[in-house]
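Deliverable D4.2, example record:
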Amino acid sequence: METPSIIVRVATPDDIHYATTITDEMESSAKARGTGIAKRSPEYIELKMREGKAVIALTADGTWVGFCYIETWSHGEYVANSGLIVSPSFRKSGVAKRIKERIFELSRKLYPEAKIFGLTTGLAVMKINSDLGYEPVTYSELTQDEAFWAGCKSCVNYDILMSKDRKNCLCTAMLYDPKDHYKPEETAEDFKQHSKAYERLMRFKQSRFIQAFRKKSSGVAGGGGDATKKRMFSIFNFFYNL
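Output generated by the structure prediction step:
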């Protein structure tokens, strides 16, 4: 149930004292889930606040609730809404969706022509993105900016990403293209129809990639072939993203 007392707004320099709390929770959350995350320093989070490229959620009395920030790549052609994190005390309150909606709105305002993308290992984030009009895509449709991929080096799954020649990993890629996109109602309905299948596929993807990487690391050759590259929207095309 959504909590009305939570304020979701664009972060300002007055919020920099929350930076360490935010980065500590990002790292703690990633460890608890057993998934990777590109680490960010408190100084980097402070920079985003000073630039007006972040959204923060707080209670009326100033308790930190959640956060997300904007990154730009390929000279502004691509925008990523990164680092979405919610305090454990406020999870399942609906605030994550509010933060995503606000950062998406801010991204469209600051970079109206940019493609907005994200990488996630979470089904809940996939649902939120689908409600906004994102669709699952191949990694080839994301920015190829070296600086972006360098940010993955601190992720525990970085070796898997590199073993796949940066064409795939445990994360699912999602994209909103302002010049060529489905209506949010369509992407939301697609996710609703196929959410159970998406969940099974994400689990299968994790199992398959980890097993394949272990075999490769131990010197055992793994199998597999290339599929035809195509834009994905339906559950059938989503198989390529494995």
